[in-house]
Amino acid sequence: MSEPLLEPEQWYATLPTAFVSACLLLTDADGRVLVVKPNYRPYWMIPGGVIEPGELPEECAAREIGEELGLEVRAGELLVVHWSPPVDDRPRVMVNFLFDGGAVADPGAIRLQEDELDEAAFLPWEEAAARLAFHTAPRLSAARRARETGRTVYLPGW
C-alpha cells in the first residue's frame, strides 16, 4: 500500500528554494560599464535586485533601475543566466538574470536612491569586475561574451 499523496501546499513546502534576481548591464557612450556601490555591502554591484512575487525578471530589472538610479529603461536581450550556490551569509541558491540595458544616453540623469546606494560609476570592464564580489564578477565577462556572440551565456557556479 502506497502512502497518500501530499496536498499541493505540503508538497511545495518540501521543495528547495532559491533567491531570484535580475540586473541590467548598462554602458555609457564609451562602452564603460555602470556599477553601483550599495551602502549595505562592502563591494560594488551590477544594478538590479530581487524579483518580487508575480514579477517577470525583465520587469524586475527595469523596476530596480528606476528605483535605484532614476532611469526609465527597458530590459533588452537576456545576456546571462547565472546559477550560484549558497555563499557567505546567503543560505540558498541564487539565480540571476542579466539583461542588456544598452547605453545610457545621459549619465547626468542618474539619481541615486540614497537610502541604498552611495555611488555609481562607469568603469572599464576589467576595473568594474575587480570591484564586484568574487561570486558575481564572472557575470561581466559572460555578458561581454554574450554581447559579442549574440548568444545568452549560462554561467553555473562562481
UniProtKB/TrEMBL annotation:
Domain Nudix hydrolase, chain residue ranges per copy: 16-145
Bilayer-spanning residue ranges: none
Pfam families: NUDIX
A GO term, aspect molecular function: hydrolase activity
Keywords per UniProt: Hydrolase, Magnesium
Top-level taxon: Bacteria
Cofactor(s) this protein cannot do without: Mg(2+)
InterPro entries: Nudix_hydrolase, NUDIX_hydrolase-like_dom_sf, NUDIX_hydrolase_CS, NUDIX_hydrolase_dom
Membership in a protein family: Belongs to the Nudix hydrolase family.
Protein name from the UniProt record: ADP-ribose pyrophosphatase
Originating organism: Planobispora siamensis
